[in-house]
Specification:
This protein has 2 domains: 3-139 and 311-331, 3-Layer(aba) Sandwich (Rossmann fold), CATH 3.40.50.720; 147-305, no CATH class. It has 10 helices and 14 strands. It has helices at 12-23, 44-47, 61-66, 88-98, 117-130, 147-153, 176-182, 189-218, 309-318, 321-326, and strands at 3-8, 27-33, 71-74, 102-105, 133-136, 158-169, 224-233, 238-240, 243-245, 250-261, 264-274, 288-295, 298-302, 330-331. It has a 6-stranded parallel sheet, sandwiched between helices. It has a 6-stranded mixed sheet with strand order 7-10-11-6-12-13. Helix 1 (12-23) links the parallel strand 1 (3-8) and strand 2 (27-33). The relative contact order is 0.15.
Length: 349
């Protein structure tokens, strides 16, 4: 039986997901919600740059619910970082869940316990009302920072600490809204400091979810999560896909989130973000690192491990539709679901 799917958001990630849903015999696209007024009423095929498919994009919650989807792929820009209401995503997700629709989102909610009972209890209550499930996923967070170290931990007899590091450069990322408005690249130090309050809160929420999920998966109680951030400026003008970074503006950021237990950093996450590969050469790291200090020690370092992070983010969500739809109602994390695999993706040459 096919699963009825609605797509929520048609940005860089949403278009990949939409394309995958349309291509799969396991899914039936029943609605496509767009966040931009200029897209409302346009044929979904047109939004993908292909021939019309006979379905028009909609701009209201009621139209999505009326289409009776089994699952919504929720992929807007995160309201915690953009827009006037940081709580907007939680409100939308709760409405969809209460209407009996499973939600798979890429804007967070990987481990909503990290936001406290005020948020977690709202989500669980909505799941109970509608008999639906919520799952948050992605590439990082959503795969690298949680699922991979948890899988590798199964090789160990004893673990002292877990470290996961990401180093990404965004010179080819075309979104001005993400690079400049969300991440704050291209801002002077004073403007970046003012911008960082909301940005800091958003990123720390996301990666605190990851830290707590790994800790709970390993059975470790945390006392606190230590957060650190530093930035580097570019000495000359940089031209990247999203636009221009003037000299003297923020062009690199390094973050860490350390889950502390008994005075030790037992779960350590690091993220290095560069607007251009030429900046901050002293912040040199493989694209992805996972180290487990234990018995045995585990160390994986990869460069260019992923050719398209946007596609990977979308597909990890699409592949989760089946497991989430089959799951019992409630907030469902990687600790609850079976392994999400690329079922139906093998095409022999």
């Amino acid at each position: 039986m096919t699963v009825r799917v609605a797509q929520w958001g048609t940005g860089n990630v949403g278009r990949y997901a939409l394309d995958a849903v349309l291509a799969s015999p396991e899914f039936e696209l029943v609605a496509c919600f767009v966040t931009s007024d200029v897209k409302v009423g346009r044929d979904v095929g047109d939004l993908l740059g292909r021939e019309p498919i006979g379905m028009l994009a909609v701009g209201s919650m009621s139209e999505v619910v009326a289409a009776r989807p089994d699952c919504v792929l929720h992929m807007p820009l995160p309201s915690a970082q953009v827009g006037d209401d940081p709580d907007h995503d939680t409100q939308v997700i709760c409405q969809l869940l209460a209407a009996g629709i499973d939600v798979i989102t890429t804007v967070g909610y990987l481990y909503p316990k990290a936001y406290g009972s005020a948020v977690f209890d709202r989500l669980q209550a909505a799941c109970s009302v509608g008999g639906a499930s919520l799952h948050g996923t992605g590439a990082n967070p959503g795969f690298m920072s949680e699922l991979v170290p948890l899988v590798l931990s199964g090789l160990c007899r004893q673990i002292s600490s877990v470290f996961v590091g990401e180093s990404s450069e965004f010179s080819r990322y075309p979104s001005k809204e993400v690079i400049f408005a969300m991440m704050g690249f291209g801002q002077t130090p004073d403007l970046f400091e003012a911008h960082s309050e909301r940005y800091h809160r958003w990123l720390t929420g996301l990666f605190s979810e990851s830290v707590m999920m790994v800790a709970d998966g390993l059975g470790v109680g945390l006392d606190s999560i230590d957060v650190g951030q530093e930035s580097m400026l570019t000495s000359d003008e940089l031209v990247i896909a999203a636009g221009v970074l003037p000299a003297g503006t923020v062009a690199a950021q390094r973050w860490h989130w350390h889950g502390m237990s008994g005075g030790s950093a037992v779960v350590q996450l690091e993220a290095i973000y560069k607007a251009h590969p030429r900046v901050a050469p002293e912040w040199s790291s493989p694209a992805w690192v996972c180290r487990i200090d234990g018995q045995p020690k585990v160390n994986i370092e990869l460069d260019r491990w992923l050719s398209n992070g946007l596609l990977a983010t979308a597909m990890h969500a699409v592949h989760a539709i089946g497991p989430v739809h089959a799951a019992a109602p409630g907030v469902r994390t990687f600790l609850d679901l079976p392994l999400v695999v690329g079922r139906g993706t093998v095409t022999p040459r």
